What we know:
By secondary structure, this protein is mainly beta. Helices cover 3% and strands 60% of the residues. The chain starts with a helix and ends with a strand.
Amino acid sequence: MSNTILKKSAVALALGLAFSGYAAAETHIAVVNQDSSEAVEFGNNMYIEQSGVFSWAYADQYGEGNDTSLLQFDDWQEAYTYVTGDFNFVEGEQSGFWNVADSEITGDENILVSLQAGDLNSSTIFLTGNGNSAYVEQSGAGNEGVIDLTGDYNTADIIQLGDANWANFQIEGSDNYFEANQSGSSNEAGYFSATGNMNEFISDQEGDGNVGGVVGANGDMNTVWVQQFGSTNIFIASSLEGNENFVDVYQDGASNEFLIEPIQGDVNEIVVNQEGNTNVVEAATGMVGNYNTVDASQDGDNNYAVFATEGDDHIIEMDQRGDNNIAVAESYGSYNDIRISSRGDENFNGVALIGSGNEADSRQIGDVNTAEIVIAGDDNDVYSRQHGDSNTLLAYSYDAGTTSGNDLQSEQTGDINLIDTIIGGNDNLIAFVQEGNNNIIAGDEGSFIVGGNGGSVDIQQVGDNNVVTGGQFSDTNTMSVYQQGDYNVATVVQY
């Protein structure tokens, strides 16, 4: 029995004593114990119904084929049911504002249903065995629904209507299905300390200030589906380990958050979709392992998304539509693929490639956008495209001794655009294309810098009043500058 139930039992007992002045019919107590003999086929049936001020029912069955039904109405009821055996069916229904139900079943193919209506209800269900089902429905505020499943092929559902409710699943086993539906505000739903494979969790929350998530799960090929409708909702995934797991989160509203700390394993996939303004995707330590996939999408203004992966052969896709958005993708490893796209004004795309053989593609459509690309490693391919006016590309590489053989290509279409780059290392290929007027290719101190040996720089500008100022350093480098238009300036220095 949980601590919450023990506390509520003590309070209920004290209140029952306080009500001792009432008629005896208003304070009910029912205790039933049943034990079936082995010679009896299909065990015992039990039916309890109580109505009054304070009711307390306890039922304990041993055997097979048992049927238990508990009905309590009005206030301050408590019901405990313990069943051991096969083919058991337990159904409890309570109506009031402080109800407690505790059920524990050990056996196979059991079905348990608990219905509570009122405030501050608590229902705890323990199922051990195969092919079990559990269903909890609660109405009111401050309710708790806890289902603990041990075994395979189980099904569990929790439905809560009201505010400040709590739905908790604890799973140990495989091929289980569990679902939480909450309507109201400040509700919480999730599964915790779960172990097993091929489990499926679905959470649907409607309201504001809700929290849904997964904390402490270990297993393979598990699936998590979470939908949140409203504002200031949060999804949390923490301490997840396993392979081939799938997480899909949809948030519709403003000021919602998607938080991950981190997911470890291989061939995992995360999909997050946020619609609204000032939403956040925070996964600075998002995924650790190999062959993982991330797909993040935000539609609205003032959104923020950062996702990082550690390992090889990852795919990160981020898409933003709206203004004043920030998207940052970081890859630590080799042969990773990053794709970031934004549509709107005053957006920021950030890409960090720390490793070798990676690919990055940044695309922006709109005005006053900024793309920043950082490279630390060899043989990386980077492509940046910006369409609009007053856009800026910042491209840098760190540790010149380990940033060789990279390919950086940038294309800008529009007016008053800027490319600022400092690239070190050997055998790098750089190609810049600007189409429009008053564009500049330069650097922090008035010129771009390309260092190392065997590098190649190709620059094309089409339009008027464009400027190229830069230099190459070291040996066997080549540079080509093409300008078409009027009043253009090109200054190239090679050492």
